[in-house]
């Protein structure tokens, strides 16, 4: 029996709250690949929660690590002191990042991670005597969380327009989605690397390059509908940043921890950014945590620039490196290693790709794109009602087919836990195909 719910007090984030007045969708427990709803239905998790439960729900080793830590050390600050698991977790994290990225700043989620990385970029240039580097460059359709820095570099005007003032000075490159040339491409889209040339053009015509501090990109743009970089695109962005002394930040909040079949997109693409922002899969989402992993010499610049015994970077959070999060990170990394989950994702990717592209030809399907265990299925919009068709798919999936999927506009996004089996992949795409066939 469903318990009556009082909806008078909770303000749900990024939600049309009025839709839920009478009947909120509710998840009450989870295990492995499945959620259970308040009315006892099993829901196959096609999105790893919000791209974050990479090892599957309620993994016993992660649960146990958190429980033990909660009983042993509930809280300790990292200001002017520390605790053993914070140091151990930072070391364990750098064991899977590109070698030059060797310093970890802990925060609590992706938004804080992005704002932290942007602040490090600005402060780093200042410490080197280049205080004029204040401009930040992001991309259209980028999602970098909801901090003031993140919404400024983010490319979603709707996330900015209610707030207006106080935003950082940011410019935005075009996003690289080009359905005219790349629709239904499998893996990396073949066309469009030249879109990255826009960065150098802007530097030479609009902005003095010596005023630019950092470029931030999601290697795969997740929240706005699984936009993959065209082959060679990210390499060009890296080369241009190098040429003009601009830092390159990879926002790996969704691509980190095996989503593409490598620890980070940095390794998948063979590109070393100057900083990686991560969160989500870091603790398998069991405890909130985020981090910026920074090139050692950027960190060292701060150490050398500050006067002796002064605080080198005026930034930090009460819960930076929280003991529960640190314990969860250590346990999660161990699970990823012991169960070879990144490798498993790499092996499952081609099967996932084939299953995704089997939906080609179904009503209103205008593009299917995939990389690793990420897939975007773009539908034709209903005139004047953007997002309506995808929302119908979303609702039918949840209520009729027992699937958790995500939609953004008219795009369905899938990003299952890395433990998904071939049978579950068949279930996921088979049920989606059934729904698509019913659309009008
Ligand atoms: N960056 C990216 C690429 C994200 O996908 C997200 C969250 N979807 C964020 C930042 C923000 O993370 P959080 O919601 O944990 O603040």
TrEMBL record:
<dbReference type="InterPro" id="IPR015421">
    <property type="entry name" value="PyrdxlP-dep_Trfase_major"/>
</dbReference>
<dbReference type="InterPro" id="IPR049704">
    <property type="entry name" value="Aminotrans_3_PPA_site"/>
</dbReference>
<keyword id="KW-0808">Transferase</keyword>
<protein>
    <submittedName>
        <fullName>Aspartate aminotransferase family protein</fullName>
    </submittedName>
</protein>
<dbReference type="InterPro" id="IPR015424">
    <property type="entry name" value="PyrdxlP-dep_Trfase"/>
</dbReference>
<keyword id="KW-0032">Aminotransferase</keyword>
<dbReference type="GO" id="GO:0030170">
    <property type="term" value="F:pyridoxal phosphate binding"/>
</dbReference>
<dbReference type="InterPro" id="IPR005814">
    <property type="entry name" value="Aminotrans_3"/>
</dbReference>
<dbReference type="GO" id="GO:0004015">
    <property type="term" value="F:adenosylmethionine-8-amino-7-oxononanoate transaminase activity"/>
</dbReference>
<dbReference type="GO" id="GO:0009102">
    <property type="term" value="P:biotin biosynthetic process"/>
</dbReference>
<dbReference type="InterPro" id="IPR015422">
    <property type="entry name" value="PyrdxlP-dep_Trfase_small"/>
</dbReference>
<comment type="similarity">
    <text>Belongs to the class-III pyridoxal-phosphate-dependent aminotransferase family.</text>
</comment>
<keyword id="KW-0663">Pyridoxal phosphate</keyword>
<dbReference type="Pfam" id="PF00202">
    <property type="entry name" value="Aminotran_3"/>
</dbReference>
């Amino acid at each position: 029996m469903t318990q009556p719910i009082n909806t008078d007090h909770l303000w749900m984030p990024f939600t049309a709250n009025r839709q839920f007045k009478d009947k909120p969708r509710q998840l009450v427990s989870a295990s492995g690949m499945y959620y259970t709803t308040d009315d006892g239905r099993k829901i196959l998790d096609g999105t790893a929660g919000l791209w974050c439960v990479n090892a599957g729900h309620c993994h016993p080793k992660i649960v146990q690590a958190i429980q033990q830590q909660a009983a042993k050390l509930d809280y300790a600050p990292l200001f002017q002191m520390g605790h053993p698991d914070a140091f151990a977790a930072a070391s364990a994290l750098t064991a899977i990042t590109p070698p030059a990225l060797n310093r970890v700043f802990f925060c609590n989620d992706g938004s804080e991670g992005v704002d932290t990385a942007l602040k490090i970029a600005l402060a780093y240039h200042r410490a080197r005597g280049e205080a004029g580097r204040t401009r930040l460059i992001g991309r259209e359709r980028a999602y970098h969380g909801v901090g003031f820095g993140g919404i400024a570099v983010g490319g979603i005007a709707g996330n900015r327009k209610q707030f207006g003032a106080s935003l950082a000075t940011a410019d935005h490159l075009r996003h690289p989605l080009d359905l005219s040339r790349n629709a239904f491409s499998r893996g990396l889209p073949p066309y469009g690397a030249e879109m990255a040339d826009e960065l150098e053009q802007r530097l030479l015509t609009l902005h003095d390059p010596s005023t630019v501090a950092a470029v931030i990109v999601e290697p795969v743009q997740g929240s706005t509908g699984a936009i993959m970089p065209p082959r060679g695109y990210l390499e060009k962005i890296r080369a241009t940043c190098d040429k003009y002394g601009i830092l390159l930040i990879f926002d790996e909040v969704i691509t980190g921890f095996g989503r593409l079949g490598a620890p980070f997109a940095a390794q998948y693409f063979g590109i070393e950014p100057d900083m990686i922002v991560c969160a989500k899969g870091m603790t398998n989402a069991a405890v909130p945590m985020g981090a910026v992993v920074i090139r050692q010499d950027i960190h060292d610049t701060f150490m050398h620039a500050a006067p002796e015994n002064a605080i080198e970077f005026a930034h930090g959070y009460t819960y930076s490196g929280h003991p529960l999060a640190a314990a969860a990170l250590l346990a999660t990394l161990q699970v990823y290693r012991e169960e070879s989950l990144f490798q498993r994702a790499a092996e499952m990717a081609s099967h996932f790709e084939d299953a995704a592209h089997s939906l080609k030809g179904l009503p209103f399907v205008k593009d299917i794109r995939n990389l690793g265990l990420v897939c975007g299925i773009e539908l034709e919009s209903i005139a004047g009602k953007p997002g309506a068709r995808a929302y119908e798919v979303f609702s039918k999936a949840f209520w009729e087919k027992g699937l958790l999927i995500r939609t953004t506009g008219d795009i369905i996004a899938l990003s299952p836990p890395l433990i998904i089996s071939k049978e579950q992949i068949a279930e996921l795409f088979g049920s989606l195909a059934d729904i698509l066939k019913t659309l009008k």
